[in-house]
Design goal:
Layout lengths: L1 E4 L8 E6 L2 E5 L21 E3 L5 H4 L13 E4 H5 L11 E4 L3 E5 L2 E7 L7 E5 L5 E3 L20 E5 L9 H12 L3 E4 L6 H10 L5 E2 L1 H11 L8 H13 L11 E4 L7 H7 L8 E3 L8 H7 L4 E2 L8 H11 L3 E5 L7 H7 L15 H8 L1
Parallel strand pairs: 3-4, 4-5, 5-6, 10-11, 11-17, 12-14, 12-15, 13-14, 15-16
Antiparallel strand pairs: 1-2, 2-3, 7-8, 8-9, 9-10
Helix pairs in contact: 5-6
């Protein structure tokens, strides 16, 4: 396993797995800081690209696939639906289920829902002692299920929050209190928008979704692929029926709008009307030099986290359950995880190249 990008900070995801003669790139992202892309100069051709979900820091560098030989790309149907055909033509798409058994470049895998994004999955390779790539994940989502993964000797896990350990349940109330008089709650496309709408409605807040989030809710309400539960589908459908029309936006309304940092979408449009009294709340990672960053630096907006990544305890629980002996803590700086670093000890991988055990069939092949 080679970390191409994603170790040592909030960096684009790109991890190269070499197993049984196959070379598979796990994710190919950009950002979150605009323009930051993985260096593929030393990677060479790969047999497949596997995408965990459709957020830009995991798929935003698909335009570089020619450097890898334009291999087939594996992902769920929901993930593919969020990727332009101009970036990834249909003939290179190979659909994976959201949970269950499948194959990637001829290698058997198990996949499961990651609780982070609609259609998002973790991927488990049983070979070489077991390799588990989590992508981004959360065990706390109020809408998106999280499937427990199998044991694995090598674990590449989202550790974005480092030692942070506050529960989502307490965060929802704080955000609802701020939003009650009226606020623009900025969210990423394909992310926490529908979940936020559902959670706020349960607290009695009648929020309005922007057109992008509304379409996401409509898609989830008609989901037949097991992305969310039947109860959640019914809850989203009922919320859509009771939601007021989205034809007028005023500062006294609770508005859930894309994009996450007010760089595009309805959030960017309402930012231009800020003198009408619109209040802005951001709840995820805020890259420098974005509208959200500028507003927060000037004290003109509020930031309250809405968990979409694992807390410290969640990460420790995952390592314990999977019995991983090698752990790559991705998307976090070491100084943000001193407690986790101490707890992991020798299991924490600090180098970019992680050797994997050689299976018996590989030894026999090498001896031929």
């Amino acid at each position: 396993m080679t970390v191409v990008s994603g170790q040592g900070g909030k960096l684009p995801a790109a991890f190269l797995l070499e197993m049984h003669g196959c070379r598979i790139l796990l994710d190919l992202g950009e950002g979150p800081q605009p323009g930051v892309k993985p260096d593929l100069s030393q990677v060479g051709p790969v047999d497949a690209i596997c995408l965990s979900h459709a957020h830009i820091d995991h798929v935003g560098s698909l335009d570089l696939a020619a450097q890898l030989g334009n291999p087939p790309v594996y992902a769920t149907g929901r993930t593919f639906s969020q990727i332009s055909g101009a970036v990834l033509p249909p003939e290179r798409r190979v659909q994976l289920p959201v949970s269950g058994k499948a194959e990637i470049a001829g290698l058997p895998v198990t996949v499961g829902r990651n609780g982070h994004a609609p259609g998002g999955i973790w991927v488990h390779f049983a070979c070489c002692g077991g390799v588990l790539y989590m992508g981004d994940w959360s065990a706390e989502s109020l809408l998106l299920p999280f499937d427990e993964p199998p044991a694995a000797g090598c674990l590449i896990t989202d550790a974005s929050y480092g030692d942070f350990d506050e529960a989502l349940s307490s965060q929802v109330g704080a955000i609802a209190d701020f939003a009650a008089p009226g606020a623009v709650l900025c969210v990423p496309a394909g992310g926490r928008g529908p979940e936020m709408m559902l959670a706020l409605s349960r607290l009695g807040l009648k929020a309005i979704a922007c057109p992008v989030v509304r379409r996401e809710m409509q898609s989830l309400a008609s989901d037949e692929d097991g992305i969310i539960s039947a109860d959640s589908r019914a809850g989203i459908a009922e919320l859509l029926r009771s939601m007021p029309p989205a034809d007028e936006w005023s500062a006294d309304k609770v508005i859930v709008a894309t994009e996450a940092n007010a760089e595009t979408g309805l959030a960017a449009q309402l930012l231009l009307r800020r003198n009408e009294g619109f209040r802005f709340l951001f709840s995820g990672h805020v890259p420098a030099q974005t509208p959200a960053w500028d507003m927060l630096q000037r004290g003109e907006a509020r930031w309250l986290r809405w968990n979409v990544h694992p807390r410290w305890q969640d990460t420790m629980d995952l390592v314990t359950r999977t019995r991983a002996g090698k752990v790559v803590a991705a998307f976090v700086r070491l100084e943000e995880m001193p407690l986790l670093e101490q707890w992991l000890g020798e299991r924490l991988c600090r180098t970019r190249v992680i050797p994997l055990p050689v299976g018996r069939d590989q030894l026999l092949k090498a001896a031929e």
